[in-house]
Amino acid sequence: MPAHVPVPATESADDAPAAPSPEPAAPEPGPGPLGRERAHLTASRAALRAMREDVQSLDIRDVTANWVNAAVLEAQIEARIKALADLAHTPLFFGRLDYLLSAQEGQSFYIGRRHVHDAEGDPMVVDWRAPVSQPFYRASRRDPQDVALRRRFGYTGGELTAYEDEHLTDPEEVERTSRLLQAEIERPRVGPMRDIVATIQPEQDEIVRSGLSGTVCVQGGPGTGKTAVGLHRVAYLLYAHRERLARTGTLVIGPNRSFLHYIEQVLPALGELEVRQSTVDELVAHVEVRGADDARAAVVKGDARMAEVLRRAVRSHVSMPSEAVVVVRGSRRWRIPAYELQEMVRELLERDMRYGAAREALPQRIAHAVLVRMEQAGEAPDDRIQDAVARNPAVKAAVKALWPPVDPAKVVLRLLSDAAFLAEHAEGVLTAEEQAAVVWAKPPRSVRSARWSPADAVLVDEAYDLVRRTQSLGHVVLDEAQDLSPMQYRAVGRRCSTGSATVLGDLAQGTTPWATGSWADALGHLGKPDAAVEELTAGFRVPREVIAYASRLLPHMSPGLAPVSSVRENPGSLVVREVAQEERDAAVVAACTGSLAREGSIGLIAADDRVPDLARALAAAGMAHLEPGTETTAASRLTLVPASLAKGLEYDYVVLDEPAAVVAGEPDLRTGLRRLYVALTRAVSGLTVVHARPLPPELH
Ligand SMILES: Nc1ncnc2c1ncn2[C@@H]1O[C@H](COP(=O)(O)OP(=O)(O)OP(=O)(O)O)[C@@H](O)[C@H]1O
Q: Which residue ranges does the record assign to the UvrD-like helicase ATP-binding domain (predicted)?
């Protein structure tokens, strides 16, 4: 059970017993262990300052040959100075490991977000990602990993105010729950998502530190830390493989912009500024999306069989030669007969190259055949002649006719507009009914005027990849992955075809008509069928009572999935309030007012079509509210969240309006229940459900 780490003794801390809310301490380093730790903190801060000053005083005039180098170097120095900033509210270290005398020469290491060294180069704080830090997360009484003492530090507003010790090899010590860890988990939420570097749990750490070469898929219920783990894995990989990933790049994919705003601070807080964040839609934005599909069309367009239809359609542009190519050079004519050209075309088609690459290879093949004939005639042509022949007008004209350039968007446009063209390439792949579902009723005139849907854009992306290989990144994190269609998995998969991925999701939270039913299928479409699937079951967000309530829905929508077991010890307040229809909006506003009386952020979640009414009700009561994705602050804490955007977000207190409307907002009962499950699992400290209509029977 992750929250229960063996914590025997705060008694040994002679001047500072650890406490969930550590007392505001005098900053003066006093005597005793806490005083010494504070002194180490002060010295570490000074060392960090010295490191920063060293960089600031670098004079690059003598070492840069030109202004380009100088600009690059200056940018690097700028980034380094930023990375060395001492953030007042981010503790420089949060833990300490004392190794046994037999290991690491009995040394102590302070574990923090970044490495700090003194003037001699000796470490004052080691990076949490360094191998020497790993036992901080993994060592246990059963497997102490050469650790004699693990110490966790508690801070109040940047001041070191408490610590907790575990002597992992001491048989006398009793196992207790870490109060500092518990306090961290239960800290009220305001603002964007935070890093969890001080409290990563052992099973989370195994995922975080898994190697760059393998793809990992994490199934986990709401609040089990999937997003947190994925982001920390990126930070870890960037540390362990910085040069390689700097070359190849990393990308985090989330479901929408609100979500990306919510998580965008985590990596910078860990010192990583270079990671791109995107939605799937943004990745495939070759065409402007202005349209939408009905569920039936979207499901067919998202089906992996569409890849075969597109492949055939793109390759249908190739035609078999029926005439010879004659190349004239000087007084000589070189003739490549049709049957030889046919062989070349056939061979290129069989090699299954990208359409564009084959198109580039064909003139070289023809030129090679000409060269062979030249040699047979006693000439001694070199590579330059081959290139010249490949550019010969007769060869160019032949290639243009046999293997014409293809515009990927136009191919998709034609497939979706021309029923006969679609039928030709979907023969034996899509049924007549499926074909009818995807063809546009009113064919657009051009790529520009077409009302492309998100699913169409994915098809265009697939077509682009058939023509020219999509560049692969070194690592891709795919969050809320359960909602992707097979074609979307393929789009993501080609962006990590030579790299690896972290796939995060919860099958029970799948709310698209094409949501994945099994991770094995999803990973197959992603092109990573051998990826390991890990499961996280300990919940760090939702209080026990609330998760138990939400889990009543599980057997009705995702049978077989294990409910989350909450590690939150504070009794979560779950209030379910039935009111008369005409009092409902007022009751919702009152619930928000009640929640605002407490600390932390408040999310009012409602069916999408209830949002305008509730916005008016809040305005009438003089209560300002934010949109999802806008940062909550101490002054502005209430966000009105349409249920369709709630996924991945969390609020300290949630007021949920009319569950029946949330369910009814979806096209089918299963999706409706899943949407409700998402809405019910956003609260950290308390959930108030307000309803006038009967609750969905599955909640009883
Ligand atoms: N080891 C941990 N220590 C402290 N807090 C944690 C830990 N793991 C997760 N959390 C916190 O729990 C909350 C939920 O985490 P996260 O959003 O990553 O979960 P999730 O599995 O992605 O949830 P969902 O399925 O709802 O998207 C976050 O506030 C996160 O910071």
A: 199-552
